[in-house]
Amino acid sequence: MGSLKLPHASGNSMSIAAPATNPASDLELKLPATIGTAGQVLQNSSTAGTLEFATLAGGKVLQYVYATGNTDVTTSGGSENEVIDATITPASASNKILVKGFVLLDINNSGSAYADVKLYRGSASGTEIMRAIAGNSTSANIVHAVNPWMLDSPNTTSAQEYTITISRGSGSTSHVSTSGATNYNLLLLEIEG
């Protein structure tokens, strides 16, 4: 197997070797006509065997915002109470926002009851983008871990607020509050579109 050996001035060398198996025909690998810039990768161009430098597109996490809290948030009756919010400003309108939340609910019940956990783009009066329901049909307190999440496409470069709320289910007699050491958090990830 042939190779091209490039010796270093200090004595060691680097080799470029031929394929380990015999190709079906003669092959030619063409190097790029220019040098790349920081962060670019070397890829095969649309012409087989011709290499070029390119910037990877899409899928990269560009920024994140993280908020957490453990202050008690209680809801009773038909009221809807804000648990936590966070704001992120997308760098491009084509980027997506991965919204990942966590709420630990303690449902104190004297009958059949449930609690709504809602995720909004904007404030609690904004656009509802996700909803989860946690229930309790016993006479004891039940703790639920609720994880609202959504891959959102706000299609803007304006600041975007995301809000998680809790509310008691209509007609129930339950008391709903967050409970525990780390009660709730909200993570926003901007992903290149």
Q: Can you walk through the features of this model?
A:
The protein has strands at residues 3-7, 13-17, 41-44, 51-54, 61-69, 74-75, 80-88, 96-108, 113-121, 127-136, 142-146, 149-152, 160-168, 175-178, 184-191. The strands form 4 sheets. Strands 5, 6, 8, 11, 12, 14 and 15 form a 7-stranded antiparallel beta sheet that branches. The chain has a 4-stranded antiparallel beta sheet with strand order 7-13-9-10, with no helix packed on it. Strands 1-2 form a two-stranded antiparallel ribbon. It folds into 2 domains: 1-56, no CATH class; 61-191, Sandwich (Jelly Rolls), CATH 2.60.120. It has 193 residues and is mainly β. Strand 9 (113-121) and strand 10 (127-136) form a beta hairpin. The protein is elongated.
List the helices and strands and how they pair.
Layout: E1 3-7, E2 13-17, E3 41-44, E4 51-54, E5 61-69, E6 74-75, E7 80-88, E8 96-108, E9 113-121, E10 127-136, E11 142-146, E12 149-152, E13 160-168, E14 175-178, E15 184-191
Antiparallel strand pairs: 1-2, 3-4, 5-15, 6-14, 7-13, 8-11, 8-12, 8-14, 8-15, 9-10, 9-13
Task: Please summarize what this structure is.
With 193 residues, this protein is an all-beta fold. The protein has strands at residues 3-7, 13-17, 41-44, 51-54, 61-69, 74-75, 80-88, 96-108, 113-121, 127-136, 142-146, 149-152, 160-168, 175-178, 184-191. It is elongated and about 80 Å long.
Strand content: over 45%
The CATH C-level name of the largest domain is: Mainly Beta
Instruction: Please indicate the count of domains.
Output: 2
The second-level CATH architecture of the largest domain is Sandwich
In round numbers, the mean pLDDT is: 85
Indicate the low-confidence ranges by residue numbers.
Answer: none
- Whole-Å distance between the termini? 44 Å
SS-based class: mainly beta
